[in-house]
Design brief:
mainly alpha, Rossmann fold, 2 domains, 53% helix
Length: 180
């Protein structure tokens, strides 16, 4: 498992209080953290093994573009271009999609104090960026999952449905929508 370690980012709580002031530091910390994780992975990867990650370096610029001003974003892009080539190419990308209201409810349910300030407007802009990005994504097979009625964290049956769906994939882009 290769997981985002948000709790290690010393700027994240400050970002939620003062987004403009701490956006660049927050974003760069995550970028370098992910780059270091990939570097460590390459050193350990003597034999090919299955790796599951909860982040995709290719989508990292979406957050940067959403949160940084133009000059900061240009600086971020320069650094990103230098680090991007070090990320392994995924065999499969799973895009979990839900309406901002559902996302906000799940963020609130997680109960992470600094996330309590997340607004629906921010999640709406982020969800729109994700939708546009994944609409054009073609670097790896993609499974788009409508998870409004699926909760993989709390419902093992939902997770098993997802595993079955992944196993049944036949094309480079597929959709999974299990309604209530």
């Amino acid at each position: 498992m290769l997981l985002e370690q948000a709790e290690e980012n010393p700027f994240l709580a400050r970002f939620y209080r003062e987004p403009k002031r701490y956006a660049l530091a927050t974003q760069l910390f995550f970028l370098f953290q992910r780059s270091a994780q990939f570097a460590e992975l390459r050193q350990q990867d003597l034999f090919r093994k299955t790796i599951v990650s909860d982040f995709l370096l290719d989508k990292d610029p979406l957050f940067a573009q959403l949160n940084l001003d133009d000059d900061e974003f240009r600086l971020y892009q320069t650094i990103y271009r230098e680090l991007r080539m070090q990320a392994p190419q995924p065999d499969l990308v799973i895009y979990l999609q839900a309406k901002p209201a559902v996302l906000l409810e799940r963020v609130r349910k997680r109960g992470i104090t600094y996330e309590a300030q997340i607004q629906t407007d921010y999640l709406t802009r982020l969800a729109d960026k994700y939708a546009n990005y994944f609409h054009q994504y073609n670097r790896a097979p993609l499974l788009i999952v409508n998870c409004e009625h699926l909760n993989f964290a709390d419902n093992e049956q939902d997770f098993l449905h997802l595993v079955d769906r992944v196993s049944a994939m036949k094309g480079p882009r597929e959709f999974f929508n299990l309604s209530e």
